[in-house]
Amino acid sequence: MTGQEQEPDTARTFKDMMRVPVQFYRTIGEDIYAHRSTSAWRSLLLKVYLYGGFINFNLLVIGELVFFYKSIQDFETVRLAIAVAPCIGFSLVSDFKQFAMAYYKGTLVRLLDELEEMHPKTLERQRAYRMPDFERTMKRVISIFTFLCLAYTTTFSFYPALKASVKFNLLGYETFDRNFGFLIWFPFDATSSNLVYWIVYWDIAHGAYLAGIAFLCADLLLIVVITQICMHFDYVSRRLEEHPCEPGRDRENIEFLVWIVRYHNKCLTLCEHVNNLYSFSLLLNFLMASMQICFIAFQVTESTVEVIIIYCIFLMTSMVQVFLVCYYGDTLIATSLRVGDAAYNQRWFQCSKTYCQMLKMLIMRSQRPASIRPPTFPPISLVTYMKVISMSYQFFALLRTTYNAN
Question: What's the CA gap between 65 and 196, in Å, rounded?
Fold first, then answer.
């Protein structure tokens, strides 16, 4: 085998493409395909697990907010407020993403059903759609982002216990430090005994895992969906470019173009479903990401080596997450614009006036590219990423100057 990866020998179903987000979602009780479930008891248990997990998680978020409020009352503890701020931002975004998924569940089901219907079913068709190329890139992106997101939640959750265990069991320290990975206020002494400590510790760990999965899977779902839509736009473009437009076959040419226009319209409808599902959550995501990156960067420049390492993982996760959303938004714009270029590159001058008029309408429609559009934001692209990073740096410079002045 050469450096290229071997193509699959069997056709990949749409559920194969969806496997990673679907399986991760189920670990927190969210079943995307609950409407197809044949077991009412299983669906009920998953819902109870999901709702119970989010009730617990939001109680922990309230504890973080109380801790933040108490910390900003005194300048001596402001650094603790800055340390907990990015975690609060991450938690709120996770909460809102899950809320959006629940609120727009009907739109999500419709989107996935339509994508599954359009999915090429045979291996020959999938090769015609260049699906293996799209899937290969998608898998690499998913692997990297999943690793970073789980590395962040795992490090924050288990580093304090691992550090205390090493000091107590291997280095001979007399006491076991009962610390938590997240700064949370409790209305009781959570370190009063080993039993209370470990119950609270695993409760926090589960809350962190739930937040990480809710945050991760919404973006993994977006990546899978946009990959599929881009694949369909690419197929439309190549079919347009490859169509011979032979003179004297006007009926066949018009039938072909009618099919293309309908197919193109389906792709645009899918993009509208994506916007309905993600627009508000991405708006909050970008606003919070600017603040998160600012506070994390401040922690990196003002902390000890071990804290710097932990927060560097958090920083990388936040920056990669914003980049991926912007990258796929940019790719969606580019692939949808390519449809108009492909239509113009045809030998349309050999066809009838009716065909040329229809082609002109297709080109005019493709000049308004498909895109992800959060409210009050321009369409998401790599330019958006630069703006978010620039905004984060401005917040960071202001915070650093204000902190040093005091």
Answer: 22
In a domain, 210, yes or no: yes
Q: Is residue 12 part of a domain?
A: no
Contact of 264 with 365, CB cutoff 8 Å: yes
Predicted local confidence at residue 5, as pLDDT:
53
pTM to 2 decimals? 0.91
Q: What is the pLDDT of residue 223?
A: 95
Could you list the residue range(s) of the whole structural domain that residue 137 is in?
18-405
In sequence order, which residues have a C-beta less than 8 Å from that of residue 130 and are 6 or more positions away?
231, 234, 235
Asked if the structure places residue 223 within a domain, the reply is yes
Average pLDDT per block of 10 residues along the chain, 406 residues long: 55 89 93 84 92 95 94 84 90 92 92 93 92 93 93 90 86 84 92 91 94 94 96 94 83 90 94 92 88 85 80 89 94 94 87 88 90 88 91 85 74
Specify if 171 maps to a domain: yes
* Cα–Cα–Cα angle for 125, 127, 129, rounded to 5 degrees: 70
First to last CA, the chain: 62
Number of domains in the chain: 1
